[in-house]
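hey so i finally got around to running the thing on that chain from the lab meeting. sorry it took forever, my laptop kept dying and i had to restart like 3 times. anyway pasting the input first so we r on the same page abt which one it is
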Amino acid sequence: MSVTTMPQTDGTDTEPTKKSRKKLLLVLVLVLAVAGAAYWFLLKPGGADAAEPVPGEVVVMEPIQVNLAEGHYLRIGVALQLTADVTHAADGSKALDLVIDTFSGRTTEELAQPKERAKIKKELLHEVEEAYHHEVMDLYFTEFVTQ
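ok and heres what got predicted. didnt touch it at all, straight out
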């Protein structure tokens, strides 16, 4: 019969120490990553690009009528809040075209829901901002009547 003997140790096994160091290093890297992300998204000082635009002129456009679903229509008036750095006269034709595209064919039930109307307005504002190269910073409904 063969007897296998285990090597005797003095209680200083290096394997658990290596594992605990790896865990500590992983936790440290994770904490630094979270701190870096928090700084980047929440605490980072804003440069010139991060500054909020300054409100300028408000351009009010004549209300228009848009055909909705099922023979209904929407009479809608909009105003564009320009940024202060706009030095030329704003042409509202692009915005009115986007209003027509955004609201045409929608149902009166859909437009009667405040949350849905707010969602549509947010989408429209995004489209208007892009069309005007970020010279428009907000959009207001001056008239909104369905029939």
